[in-house]
Amino acid sequence: MSIIEWLIHGTFAVPGGELRVPEVVGNLFGLASAVLGMRRVVWAWPVGLVGNVLLFTVFATGELSGAVTEPLWGQAGRQVFFAAVSIYGWWRWSQLRRQGGSADGRAITPRWATGRERLLLVGLGVVGYAVAYAVLTRIGSWGPTTEAWILAGSMLATYGMARGWVEFWLVWILVDVVGVTTLVQAGYYPTAAMYLVYGGFVILGFVVWLKASRAAAVPKPDEPTVETVA
């Protein structure tokens, strides 16, 4: 078996069953991407892209470690969107990095979204959920109610990360809460376990980005404050 075949169709023997190689390895790439994203490193995007491809093969083919043997199209579609936004995020962070990046040497400077941007996120979330639910119900996906939120919420969070908005971590928390419950019910235990690990990194990532956004908002000694300019 070649390395490519092993990555797509290989299995790990475990007590009481087996685990799919792409499900395990894909989630490890996803975890590495989350860590790099927390540190605002450009490599977060291509690393995550590899994980997206591997996990897409898992969710779209129905070759799963769990009891569900039909595709989870919401999860599969989520990987497609991740891949598309990863390309955008890779390009955006690379551009910002070439322009000098943030003051602390990272690729991007975290900030809170503006009021208008938050309204846009809420609107996109509502529309995204409605569209995802309709499509997933139509194609017969397993658990369309929760899958629709996982898909729509993931879209918002990934786009928010590409834009450098601190809020994206909060959206991820809501996605993880629903995701763990759904994946356990479906029998995707490796992915559910990784969601729990993600949850810890999401909380840590939120704290790290919050501190970075506050540090970036403090005027440097040689920079005029808003009151001085006025």
TrEMBL record:
State any GO CC term.
plasma membrane
Keyword list (alphabetical) reads: Cell membrane, Membrane, Transmembrane, Transmembrane helix, Transport
Would the keyword Transmembrane turn up in this protein's UniProt record?
yes
The name under which this protein is listed is Nicotinamide riboside transporter PnuC
* Transmembrane annotation, as ranges: 41-60, 119-136, 169-186, 192-210
Per the UniProt record, the source organism is Nocardioides iriomotensis
Keyword Hydrolase included in the entry's annotation: no
What family does this belong to?
A: Belongs to the nicotinamide ribonucleoside (NR) uptake permease (TC 4.B.1) family.
